[in-house]
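Lab notebook: predicted structure, single chain.

Context: the supervisor wants predicted structures on file for every construct in the current expression panel, including those that have not yet been purified. This is the next one on the list. No modifications to the sequence; it matches the entry in the shared construct table.
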Amino acid sequence: DFMSDSLYSGRRFRTFNIIDDFNRESLAIEIDSSLPTTRVIRVLERIAAYRGYPRQIRQDNGPEFIAHTLELWAKEHGVKLEFIKPGTPTQNAYIERFNRTYRNEVLDCYLFNSLSEVREITDDWMIDYNYERPHESLNDLPPKIYEQQLT
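Prediction complete. Output recorded below exactly as produced.
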């Protein structure tokens, strides 16, 4: 899913957030002033390099997700693209909840001077989110600990 915010200077930036529905792990938060479909695919390839290709990706109907390029990428790698119904973010509740937490704990807490500062703070937050933060839906375990207990 995508989010938008701005630096202290007023310059806008976007985040592309990816979580694993199974264990709620934050797989990536890509941050830049522009995140076109080609960049989305690069992020997905980076994740696939260490996790393999997912069976399915649930997403909204944003322009980056309905692009023909993403459809071709998914077909090439056997990934089903599942689109939620327009206007029903509850069908994508896990990422919406994640986005709210990220906004409350990172984006709304800092006056960022640069994209590199947003990335650095986000990277630190992701480590805490994945390895330290308990999740009620995961028996109060952090995502990576929950995953480790299952393997």
